[in-house]
Amino acid sequence: MIYVRLLSAVVASAGFVMFAATPALAADAARGQETYDRVGCALCHGSVGQGPVSGPKLAPDPLPFVAIRDYIRAPAQIMPPYREATLSDEEIADIHAYLESIPPAPDLEDTILAE
Ligand code: HEC
After folding, report:
1. What does the H/E/C string look like for the chain?
2. Domain-by-domain residue ranges, the chain?
3. Looking at residue 53, what is its pLDDT?
4. CA of 36 to the centre of ligand 1 (A)
5. Pocket test for ligand 1, best of 39, 45, 61 (most atoms within 8 A of CB)
6. Residues near 36 by Cβ (< 8 Å), separated by ≥ 6?
7. Which of 22, 60, 100, 102 to pair with 5, CA 20 to 30 A apart?
8. Which residue has the higher pLDDT, 12 or 95?
9. What is the pLDDT of residues 67-108, one digit of tens each?
């Protein structure tokens, strides 16, 4: 009987860990791009996070998910905060996946400007 209880406790906590890890695992760049445009990030940070419209460059090489999430919840200056009710952690994970999917700009030598 003790083994059964122990086993169900282990299964339950494993389930919890999987659930807790879900946002990062399920993050979807295409959905993130849609959210990024819908909630207005693009208006200030540019359509591909290139900055600077009024906000700084976010991509390529975005900050880690936790840093972006914490910043969005409590920005330092001009940027408006986004609360959980407006923008969930899952949606921020999607936005982060989108920012990570943005490739670096081509080298100047590979562009028409170099000719
Ligand atoms: C009204 C304009 C505006 C909107 C909308 C906005 N931002 Fe910002 N963001 C800023 C500005 C300006 C800063 C620079 C610091 C500050 O004012 O807080 C900034 C800073 C940041 C930073 C910190 C960058 C760094 O390198 O330190 C992150 C991350 C960020 N924004 C992400 C987002 C995301 C994601 C969204 C959409 C959910 C968003 N922002 C929406 C204007 C905006």
Report:
1. CHHHHHHHHHHHHHHHHHHHHHHHHHCCHHHHHHHHHHCCHHHHHCCCCCCCCCCCCCCCCCCCHHHHHHHHHCCCCCCCCCCCCCCCHHHHHHHHHHHHHCCCCCCHHHCHHHC
2. 27-104
3. 86
4. 11
5. 45
6. 42, 49, 95, 98, 99
7. 22
8. 95
9. 999 999 999 999 999 999 999 999 999 999 999 999 998 887
User: What CATH class does 27-104 carry?
Assistant: mainly alpha
Say how far apart CA 47 and CA 50 lie, in whole Å. Answer: 7
- Contact 105 CB / ligand 1 (< 6 Å): no
pLDDT in tens, 88-98: 999 999 999 99
64, 62, 80, 60: which is closest to 72 by C-alpha?
80
